[in-house]
Amino acid sequence: MHSNLKQVAIDGPSGAGKSTIAQAAARQLGWAYIDTGALYRAIGLAVMRSGANTKNEDAVAACLPVIELDVQYVNGEQQVYIAGENVSEAIRTPEASLAASDVGKVPAVRDFLLQLQRDLAAAQPSILDGRDIGTVVLPHAPVKIYLTASAEMRAQRRHSQLAEKGIDEPFEKVLAEVNARDEQDMNRAIAPLRQADDAVLLDTTHLSLDESIQAVVQLIRNAV
Asked: Which one of 102, 179, 218, 223 has the minimum C-beta count within 10 Å?
């Protein structure tokens, strides 16, 4: 169990602020932040760019052998590359988000990424966030947190993020996408989104970003 002592698994639905909160907590603790959702987004983007149907399991699986996925840390920030191209921004579009959910249902994709995630986590004290970190990727992590917020609050946050990037999406459309993503993630056959039995539930609906970050940091400090 020694190598697991400094591994934190944060799961939760889309738009709960997992990435932002996990990244900030890792920075405070001096740990690595591993954004596993970015890996699925990268696969989704690569499949989309190839012209294959992200909803077709065989087509998605056929793309995997030629996807050159690499993760690097630049000034402590995770950067994701496909065939040498930094796609860290390109994977953040709503289309890439839905494609990530599609490819996340494909067993071959999950197998493709599982060992990569475990290797990244074993290399250094790490916080990982995603949909199935505590249940599948790091089932023995000593700290597991299920981070959530109401669908409306998550859509509101996402809407603001898009607006900051100059993307003008109607709020109703963003909320519909959040609900659609929840439906997909919670009902997929492979590793559905759920709270691990030993995970701490943290609802951030009524917490500020800073309060959410401090709550996570405190949970980790109390455990390790």
From this structure: 218
Rg (CA), the chain: 17
Q: Cβ(203)–Cβ(148) under 8 Å?
A: yes
In 104-134, which positions are buried (b, 16+ CB within 10 angstroms) versus exposed (e)? bbbebbbebbeebbeebbeeebbbbbbbbbb
User: Is 1's pLDDT higher than 70?
Assistant: no
Segment (H or E) for 141: none
Q: Which residue has the tokens 């020694």?
A: 2
- CA distances to 85, 101, 208, 214 from 114, rounded to whole Å, are 22, 16, 32, 29
Cβ atoms 43, 49 nearer than 8 A: no
Helix (H, G, I), strand (E, B) or coil at 136: helix
What number of other Cβ atoms are within 10 A of residue 187's Cβ? 10
The stretch 100-126 carries a mean pLDDT of 91
CA distance 34 to 26: 9
Instruction: Tell me the residue length of the chain.
Output: 224
Residue 5: its pLDDT value, please?
64
Residues 6+ apart with CB under 8 A from 100: 37, 40, 41, 43, 44, 91
Structure pTM? 0.79
Per-chain mean pLDDT for the chain: 92
